[in-house]
Structures are given as structure tokens and as C-alpha cells.
User: What shape does this take?
Amino acid sequence: MPLNCLTVMVKLLISIKEPGEVLDAIEGGADIIDVKNTEHGSLGLPSLSTAREVALKIGRLREKSAPLGDVDHYDESLAYIAYVLSELGYDYVKVGIKTNLREEAIKIANDVTSAVSHNVRVVLVGYADFQKFNTLSPLDIIDIAHYVNASGVMIDTLGKGGYSTFDILTPQYLSSFVNKARQYGLFTALAGGLRIEHISMAVHLGFDVIGVRTAACQGGRNGRVRRDLVMELKRKILEVEKSNLGSY
Assistant: This one.
């Protein structure tokens, strides 16, 4: 069966930093295009002009995602930002939970989920390197997501020092994360320095979305997204899914 005839179950999320990368992400086969400011942390909030232009370029060709930032304390502006992104037509609004205080995290997450339109999915992000940065763990984030009626949870790395999520968390931990989230009806996403060799494990672990930037760029994280690199990542996902189907 040709790869392009296979139904994609795992979505490929490609992070871009500017409108000029949209076309490469679309033509490469990205399912979700995520726009962020790579100079402002792991989940850098894009400027309003960038977010608006990216939304217009993508239209309904692909699902769209944008982060609110790596948030370490409650701020009233979060609700305003979340509302604006939802009004621009973003399908997903992500918020990184950078605090180690559960009540603060609940306040942040609840404000965001209350501000967006009903069809916008809020994704709470926990960090693989939570011990290094003293934040709540990804497993803690699942409980908070369930409590505030978020739609999904994601693991990313807060530090961008050349390591990946798989260098920090064991497959057993990641499997527990997926299983716990499923029990609450949450979808799961995995990111954090992922390379093409990580795709197979991410698919086998059962993640619904795989997020990539560095491996899709020429010149690293701060380089530029390339269509052919996105295509390689998408093809790898399809090959693993095809192999999984063939094993049944």
C-alpha cells in the first residue's frame, strides 16, 4: 500500500518562527503548524503581527497552534492573549507550566481555558527537565489539565541545550504519561529536541502528536524550516504506522 494512501493517526506538528516558513511546513506534510518566538524560551509567544500573518497564510489548510509562553506566575494578560489567539483562528493554544506551585498552575490554566472560544483546544505543557528547573512534573500537569478541562497535555524541554526528552525521561515514564492522560480523555503530544530516530519510539508509545523544530530546519533551531526535512519526518511517521498496522 502506498504511504500516501495510509490514514495518518499520529499528527506531525512543525514549529515555525516566521510567516516565510509556512509554505515549507505545509508542502512538507505538517498536520499542525505551530508558530512561536524561538528567542523567547521553549514556548516563546509570537508577536501579534506574526501570529496574525501566519494565521492568514495557513487559513484552513492546516491546523494552527500558538503558545502563550513558559509561564511561571499568574498574570491577567494571559486571558487576553489566549482570547486574541482564539479569535485569530488558532485551533490550539499552548501554555507552559513553569511553576512548581500547583495552585498557581491551576490558576494559570483555568484562566486560559476560560478565555478561549469553545472550539479551541488548550494544551498544558510540562517539561521533561522539570527536576533541573524545579517545575511541576509532566505527570502533575495531567491532573491539572483534567481539573481545568483542558483538551491535551504535552511534554517539551524547557532547556534547549542540545538534549532531547528521550535523554531525560525513560520510556516507562513516557508510557505512564500517555496511559494516565488517556484515562482522563486528554490527547498527548511529545516534543523537545526530537530527531528522526526518535519518531518510531514516540509512535510506539502512543503519542497523538509529535512536535519538531530543530530536525525540520537547516541550521538548527534558529535556522529555517525546509520542506524536504519535514517530508522525511512525515514519511517516517507513516512508515512506522504502516509497520504497526502490518503487525496486526
Q: What stands out?
A: The chain is about 40% helix and 20% strand.
